TrEMBL record:
InterPro entries: Bact_solute-bd_prot1, SBP. It comes from Cohnella ginsengisoli. PANTHER family: ARABINOSE-BINDING PROTEIN-RELATED (PTHR43649), DIACETYLCHITOBIOSE BINDING PROTEIN DASA (PTHR43649:SF12). This is Extracellular solute-binding protein. The lineage of its organism: Bacteria, Bacillati, Bacillota, Bacilli, Bacillales. It comes from the Bacteria.
Amino acid sequence: MVMGKNGINDILIKGNLATPFNDYLSQDPEWAKEIGDEALAANTRDGKVWSISDQKQTVGYFYNKEMFDKAGIKPAQTWDEFMSNNEKLKAAGFVPLALMTGENAWTTNLILASIVGTSGDAGNKFMNTLHPSDFNTPEMIGALNQVKTMLEKYTTKDALGAGYANAANNFCQAKAAIIANGPWMIGDFSDTTKCAAGFDQKVGIAAFPGNGMISSYEVGYMNGGKTQETRDAAEKFIRFKTGLEGQRIALEFGNVVPVSDQVQPSEALKQKYPLLVESIEVGNQSQVHYGSLDSIVYPNVTDAWKLLYPELVFGKSTAEEIAKKLTDIAAKNK
């Protein structure tokens, strides 16, 4: 059993090291129904279902309600208003954004993806395309320039080169007002080893400007068994992990959004993590959907951000030049 993230799925498929699930799904139509057509289609290539997802990404951003109140702002409806909110937060004495450019630049790229994904039909199409090859678009260049301003003016001093743990800590320790991230982070807000007691009561969730939410399915689990016996055993576990019961366990204990609408939060979970219920509602109300950059670009493009963002911020490369470099990096996969 293999989690197919970060290009591992490509390696297994190209190396003939994975078994597609088509026959197993045909033999168990109830399992296929529990996963759903959209989730299956997300991990299908050339008619073959190579992996099975057990969770859906619905990602907006979390914000510190106390900081927003003191700055006199509400979650922005437009990107111009988002930038204005950053300025007002800064004027009120707060660092607006918990960004990072190390690792996969996760929290920064969620914002970059959302600027592109909500910019109109062309940008939304780009952010819904698997393995885009051309980053030389007005939408991407404009978004890179906006993120450049955010990195220059509205984030923490450690953002350049920081990893996810740094960005998460900056938000949880009230050193920044906003972090883009998914509902799996909600449990951290009431964990006193990560956040101050009562911090969970200060956190709100919002869709990105333009009523946009990152909405995609995890790559999920692949079957790498070498013999029929091990393939069948792997499939049996993956079927449990991704079926309704497995999705329910992941929701209750991992705060992840299930792929099936049949799985709903228990009353106990609603009481413990009301923000999770709110995040699901915000996701359902959002109207513009697109993938994360991690989910659509080639792995070597994901690896490049940690080098390209410092170039952009320090003026060694313009947004246009960064877009060309991304295009050149993507072309190496052909």
